[in-house]
Design goal:
Number of domains: 4
GO molecular function, one term: ATP binding
Protein name: Response regulatory protein
CATH class of the largest domain: Alpha Beta
Structural class: alpha/beta
InterPro entries: AAA+_ATPase, AAA_lid_NorR, CheY-like_superfamily, Homeodomain-like_sf, HTH_Fis, P-loop_NTPase, PEP-CTERM_resp_reg, Sig_transdc_resp-reg_receiver
Strand order of the largest sheet: 2-1-3-4-5
Number of helices: 18
Number of strands: 14
Distance between the termini: 51 Å
CATH superfamily of the largest domain: P-loop containing nucleotide triphosphate hydrolases
Keywords: Activator, ATP-binding, DNA-binding, Nucleotide-binding, Phosphoprotein, Transcription, Transcription regulation, Two-component regulatory system
CATH architecture of the largest domain: 3-Layer(aba) Sandwich
Shape: globular
Domain Sigma-54 factor interaction: 152-381
């Protein structure tokens, strides 16, 4: 939502060259509330007073204008009391070793000397945007009045569609089937669905069907009466009864034994259960959310999963895309996990180096969100510096796709699909794509779709 009065982000310049400081201030004042300091003491005092989002720091400050000791000391002082501050340091070719040391200590980025105003503007804008996003995430995480979907961190179009679907489905009582690869966050989304429903004040009861031996699973789900079998010393409520008035989450439902599928189907049809060893029918008011990483259509074809149970569970189906198909989400989640575990473990890590962020964005994440969380947690324990590197994550930087590569891939997919739909009729495919026949022929040649 836009406001009539836009508050400018606060930018602090630490520069002892008065002429250069005036030039930078003039160039950046249209977008930022700019404050200036000329030395270490002034910079620390000013930062505490105005609380900037971004600092542009010249490492060559007096009394060491030809070195970097004073500038690095300013960097360390500022990050000590404001770890999330984005500090951009200046670097000439002869000073590059000092700039790299600054990045190791926690600087956000480097800008080259002599100063190119357009380049510096881009770096500052990017740093300011990132600071605003992180600040908003911290504010929401600290909020006591939390909304359920705030626990789902996403910015990719596919995951935002999933979130919108959950928000639409939550107020009703239909059963929901969540599908997706292992580690994509199905339980997080199930809890979000429960939190957004009218059952939010009732219990959320999860059970992992695959983790419980078949001999115990029936008792876990349906409960048992005292004396119903050896070791049944008291009457015990099953997960279904425990979820009365709330939501039952059946994780890995595709691994449920066939015999128990019949009993679960009967419960979904009649909404009553019988405990093991019991004779009375017990009515239970519960919403069922199930999840699986299996292809249930194949399981049905193989006779491993009942088709009638599938349709009872899949009143609304929601597919959760793997992390590799969610551009931007990996870095967003990585920053969240780093912030969370740094607080829990009282570790000093303040962020990721640029090579780590590129590696996170380029990696395929076969283990999805669970793998990402584990790698960040392990890196936080083992890292030596204040920032997590790609080496700490045990990831190679990899090759990040350029805009040209992404455009060519999108064009290849669109043209291939149009030709397939049009049965290789170029005129019809061109009409589908909204381009002329000559343009489509040129595209096909450049994409090597036809000789």
């Amino acid at each position: 939502m836009s406001t009539t009065t836009d508050v400018k982000p606060i930018l602090m310049l630490v520069e002892d060259d008065e002429g250069l400081a005036k030039q930078l201030r003039w160039a950046l004042a249209d977008r930022y509330d700019v404050h200036c300091a000329i030395d270490r003491a002034g910079a620390v005092a000013l930062a505490r007073r105005v609380e900037p989002a971004v600092v542009v720091l010249d490492l060559g400050l007096p009394p060491d204008p030809n070195g970097a000791s004073e500038g690095l000391a300013v960097l360390t002082d500022l990050l000590a009391f404001k770890p999330w501050l984005k500090i951009i340091v200046s670097s000439g070719n002869a000073e590059r070793i000092h700039a790299l040391e600054a990045v190791r200590l926690g600087a956000y980025d480097i800008y080259p000397k002599p100063v190119d105003i357009d380049t510096l503007r881009l770096i500052v804008e990017r740093a300011s945007h990132l600071h605003a996003l992180e600040d908003e995430n911290r504010r929401l995480a600290a909020s006591k009045d939390r909304r359920p979907m705030l626990d789902v961190l996403a910015e990719s179009p596919k995951m935002l569609d999933v979130c919108r679907m959950i928000e639409r489905v939550a107020p009703s009582d239909v059963n929901v089937l969540l599908t997706g690869e292992s580690g994509t966050g199905k339980e997080v989304l199930a809890r979000a669905l429960h939190g957004a429903s009218t059952r939010v004040d009732g219990p959320f009861v999860p059970i992992n069907v695959a983790a419980i031996p078949e001999t115990l699973l029936e008792s876990e789900l349906f409960g048992h009466e005292k004396g119903s079998f050896t070791g049944a010393h008291k009457t015990t409520l099953g997960k279904i009864e425990q979820a009365d008035g709330g939501t039952l989450f059946l994780d890995e439902i595709g691994d449920m034994p066939h015999a128990l599928q019949v009993k679960l189907l009967r419960f979904l049809q009649e909404r009553v259960i019988e405990r093991i060893g019991g004779r009375s029918q017990i009515a239970v008011d519960v919403r069922v959310v199930a999840a699986t990483n299996r292809n249930l259509a194949e399981a049905i074809a193989e006779g491993a999963f009942r088709e009638d149970l599938y349709y009872r569970l899949d009143e609304v189906g929601i597919h959760i895309p793997p992390l590799r198909e969610r551009p931007g989400d990996a870095t967003l989640l990585a920053r969240h996990f780093l912030s969370r575990y740094a607080q829990e473990m009282k570790r000093p890590a303040r962020g990721f180096t640029s090579d780590a962020l590129r590696a996170i964005a380029a990696y395929e994440w076969p283990g999805n969100v669970r793998e990402l969380e584990n790698r960040v947690k392990r890196a936080l324990v083992l890292a030596d510096g204040s920032h997590i590197t790609g080496t700490d994550l045990q990831l190679e930087e990899g090759s990040f796709p350029t805009l040209r590569m992404a455009r060519e891939e999108a064009e290849y997919e669109a043209v291939s699909k149009a030709l397939c739909v049009a049965d290789n009729n170029v005129s019809a495919a061109a009409k589908l794509l909204g381009v002329s026949r000559p343009t489509l022929y040129d595209l096909m040649r450049s994409l090597k779709l036809r000789d």
